[in-house]
Amino acid sequence: MNNESIIQHNKNYWNEKADLWFGTTALPEYGVSFVTEDDLHLFGDVSGRKMLEICCGSGHSLKYHADRNAGELWGVDLSQEQLEHAKAYLGQHGYTAKFICGPMETDLDIPQNYFDYVYSIYGIGWTTDLQGTFDRIASYLKKDGIFIFSWNHTLNYCVARSDDMGSHILEDNKLIFSRSYFDESYFRMPVHGTEIILCNRKISTYVNALAKAGFVIEQMIEQNDLATMNSQEDQSPKAKKASMLPLSVCFKARKL
């Protein structure tokens, strides 16, 4: 499939399944079993700041910043259904935002050199053009503006736990590679009775794309939360996996 077909396929999924994801993976959370903004303080004081969220979903992360006196809220999402949820959710709490429906990979009606923060909580990995997306995000930010995003850690898709493989592989705290770390081809993943289409990018792919877009990385975090790391009793296969490798990764970068 070409990029346009992948975008349309995933757009259809989000429009059909938006209700199932309402409020999931939103600030202060950066990912499942992952350290949170309460631990990391990557944003700091956002009072009066102009904020743009890429893949804003149901608007819960926008509300998080609104509760902390952010100055302007903007949200981009591929799914109009998601944006309707976000508009309603913010409205219920007395907040408004400027919403734009469209693929993050394309030219959208977003001001240049305008935002203090651009961020994406578990959304950036949906892009079919990582470099183009990072270049656009850099253009939206002021000089020294901050870009923060989280996504699945590359190893999360490469390493299998027992119930992934349908056999008892997770013995003696061992996991296996189910696909190559270097394989960045697109694959279909069954979700909610249908499929989504993703690719699994190497960490170096993100690092190099950020550098090429004119960012300097200030922090890269791949730390699961302490409860997951310290738990020794009755762990699920997913929790055992999380105690051995990062399931998520988070970057904070500054525009030069």
Compute the gyration radius: what is it?
A: 18 Å
| % residues in beta strands | 25-35%
N-to-C SSE series? HHEHEHEEHEHEHEEEHEHHE
Count of strand segments: 11
- Tell the overall outline: globular
Largest sheet: 7 strands, mixed
User: Which structural class matches the secondary elements?
Assistant: alpha/beta
Mean pLDDT: 91
User: In order across it, which strands form the biggest sheet?
Assistant: 3-2-1-4-5-11-10
Number of helices: 10
Low-confidence stretches: none
Question: What distance separates the N and C termini?
Answer: 35 Å
Helix content: 25-40%
List the helices and strands and how they pair.
Blueprint: H1 3-17, H2 37-40, E1 50-54, H3 60-66, E2 72-77, H4 80-92, E3 98-101, E4 115-121, H5 130-140, E5 141-152, H6 154-158, E6 159-160, H7 162-165, E7 176-177, E8 186-191, E9 194-199, H8 203-212, E10 215-221, H9 226-230, H10 237-242, E11 248-255
Parallel strand pairs: 1-2, 1-4, 2-3, 4-5
Antiparallel strand pairs: 5-11, 6-7, 8-9, 10-11
